[in-house]
Design brief:
The protein is an alpha/beta fold. The protein has helices spanning about 25-40, 50-65, 75, 95-105, 115-130, 150-160, 180-190; strands at about 10-15, 45, 70-75, 90, 110, 140, 170-175. The radius of gyration is 16 Å and the shape is globular.
């Protein structure tokens, strides 16, 4: 395959917390990710917020000269939570549309530390991948072992017989934020095989 036909990572969707978390390591890792994305010309696609880890990664991308695309529902924009310096801010009517637009604008997904909203966003794109609706990389950023229990849960689901063949290909786990872009790019270059559905 010539280098001209190898897919290039141009945009990365980051699902993460609207709060910063109790340990400064999370915000520091978000900033590291943002700088890495800007340095490699990768646009941030995210929920459009200016607070928490969302704000941390967005600020880092912008401060390093990169671009950010925020996707925010009207009710959150009205609460003045939208990032005021976003390269592009897409206002949508509801959370469902937000997720669809984020999916369409992204080459890959990064699951950073966050709460139930982050989990909900992650499980939707993981489910779509399981159903072979897409094969975009989904990278779990296990910063400070934050997602260790989630990773074990995936293993439990598989061991208990509630997963289809190839379940392990659904997500990739990395520990360092600075490795995120390279891992996503490598998977775009050599995609994982699709899940083999059992029905």
């Amino acid at each position: 395959m010539s280098t001209s036909t190898i897919p290039k990572l141009t945009s990365l969707c980051v699902f993460c917390g609207s709060q910063a978390g109790s340990d400064p390591v999370y915000a520091a890792a978000a900033a590291t990710l943002g700088r890495s994305m800007a340095a490699q010309g990768v646009t941030l696609v995210y929920g459009g917020g200016r607070v928490g880890l969302m704000g941390a990664v967005a600020d880092a991308v912008l401060n390093a000269g990169g671009n950010i695309v925020g996707v925010i529902p009207t009710f959150l924009k009205n609460k003045e939570l939208a990032h005021p310096k976003a390269t592009e801010m897409i206002e949508v009517p509801d959370m469902h549309t937000r997720k669809r637009v984020m999916f369409e604008r992204s080459d890959a997904f990064c699951i950073f530390p966050g709460g139930v909203g982050t989990l909900e966003e992650m499980f939707e794109v993981v489910t779509w991948r399981q159903l072979n609706l897409h094969n975009k990389p989904i990278i779990i950023a296990n910063v400070a072992d934050y997602w260790a229990d989630l990773v074990r849960l995936f293993d439990t689901i598989y061991a208990a017989g509630f997963a289809h063949g190839g379940h392990q290909a659904l997500v990739t786990v990395v520990d360092r934020a600075e490795d995120m872009v390279a891992v996503a790019q490598a998977e775009l270059k050599a995609p994982k095989p699709p899940v083999k559905l059992n029905f």
